[in-house]
Amino acid sequence: MTTTVPQWPIPSTPPLHDPVLFARAMRDMRLTWRARGVLAELATGYIPGQEPKISELVSLTRDERLAAEGREAFRKAVGELRTIGYLTPDATTASGVGERLIVDLAPAAGAQLIRPRYDYLADES
After folding, report:
1. Is residue 80, in this structure, part of any structural domain at all?
2. Residue 49 belongs to a domain with what CATH number?
3. Residue 8 domain-assigned?
């Protein structure tokens, strides 16, 4: 099986985001697993201005996206992230056509996390 070359650069630097906020975002129960995956992709070390455009990701063919979600599922995940505030439109492309979305992990400060089911798990006794 051959792997196709991505249409956008592979991240060359570690993410600049706060690792604690990123971890909270990945565990935020307000998000579906699908939305968390999209957020992880968009938050991983792209050089500013070289992040993939939403239209580029949505336009991937079935063959290009392999096991990735379909277009409608991807759009729903992006909508979910925008509603909670994890993604905001880049001011230079606010028209929504081929826009780049800026990752903001600030909503993770208010993440709804899974609480331990049993008290003994919380205090390790």
Report:
1. yes
2. 1.10.10
3. no
- 29-66: pLDDT as tens digits: 999 999 999 999 888 867 777 777 777 877 877 787 77
Element (H, E) at 54: helix 54-58
The pTM assigned to this predicted structure is 0.74
Domain presence at residue 2: no
Domain that holds residue 24: 19-123
> Taking Cα atoms as reference points, which of 86, 26, 90 lies closest to residue 55?
90
Q: What amino acid occupies position 65?
A: R
Contact 22, 105 (CB under 8 A): yes
Helix (H) or strand (E) holding 106: none
Tally of CA atoms within 13 A in the half-sphere of 65 that contains its CB? 13
Which tokens in the block code for residue 24?
A: 């909270």
Q: What tokens appear for 105 in the block?
A: 């992990």
Give the contacts of 124 (CB within 8 A, at least 6 positions apart).
none
